[in-house]
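Justification of computing resources. Each target in the renewal requires a structure prediction run like the one illustrated here; the chain below, 409 residues long, is used simply to show the kind of job we budget for.
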Amino acid sequence: MNPSPLSPLARVAVLEAACLGLLFDGIEPGLMPIASWSVSKSLLGDGYTEAAAGDWLARFTAALMLGAAIGGIVLGNLGDRIGRTRAMGISILFYSVFAALGTWVRTQEEMLILRFLVGLGVGGMWPNGMALVAECWPAASRPLVSGVMSAALNAGILLLSQLARIWPITPDSWRWIFLLAGIPAVLGVVVLAFLPESPTWLANRQTTKQPPPPVRELFQPELLRIILVAILLASIPLVGAWSASKWMIPWADQVAGSTNAPYKAATQGWWALGATIGSFTGAQLAGWLGRRLSYLLISLGSTLLTLAMFQLTAPLETSFHPIVFAQGFVATLFFGWLAVFLPELFPTRVRATGSGLAFNSGRFVTAAGGVFALLGGDYPRVGAICSMVYGLGAIAIGFAPARRQELDS
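Resulting structure tokens:
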């Protein structure tokens, strides 16, 4: 059964809602790297030390990543069961409401729990938003709209960095940023109430008499190789980002924070600007050069630039921000690439589940905190060693399947 396409106005509404959902979603992963030092100084009081602050950032990161990994799988599967739109609205409510509750925390442990709950929504937004747009827009437009959506995710980090430059986040003034992060709850309500559902999902539900398949269907012989390769290709950039490149912001704060408080926000801003451009370009690159060659080149470029960022420059040096910008651009080409590649791998009945599982599985193995402690809090060493994760992509892409699903049927 061929689904009836949405009207142009409805397609634009779907794209706008998904982009906004991803923009606000992108704020959450960038929030604690820029705010956690101030949060820790405020909540730990006399017990604050630089080492303790680094450990707490690792815990906050781990909590968010664990939540996102679980949320990507559970809420992705929910999108295949009850619809992309409803699951996307629920995801937005999760990450915004629990972020806003951070305004009133009294202890680090309370914040840790909330970051896990925020992560559930962060993980659920990507697979449902990407599946919804991929199924609502024609094939010729998908690289462009996928690039726009990937750029929106990193534009959230860019927006956060600029807000923090204008109104610095300090131990005496940090709660406002969490209250601000709760505003997208309004978008979640609007999505649930008014946004149209994917015609492809609706048509598939009408023609399929059996209940929606569980996650285990992805590990049956028909899809096993596809899901394993998809997990590998999506995990490399996620693990690389969180175990390597994200340490540049606390490193900048450690070196420059006492004399130049806005420097960490400027660092995040330069990275996010490069990332916004890179995540848009990655989707186009996948079409121009082909899936395999583009992924190979991105892997090699990310490895070299991450090494350069941690070994050939340092915060406050003239070359630091240009290299941060370049690393942000190249390392996030991956995410535009994934926005095109992942949804087309899976059939409609498991599209959000498969994309969510693949995109978020890497978050289970993100061990930034353990690496940080093992290497004694030496940011350049942590970043340089973990940059090798990106290099694995040059090997992994050789296993990528050529098969692609037709999203319009």
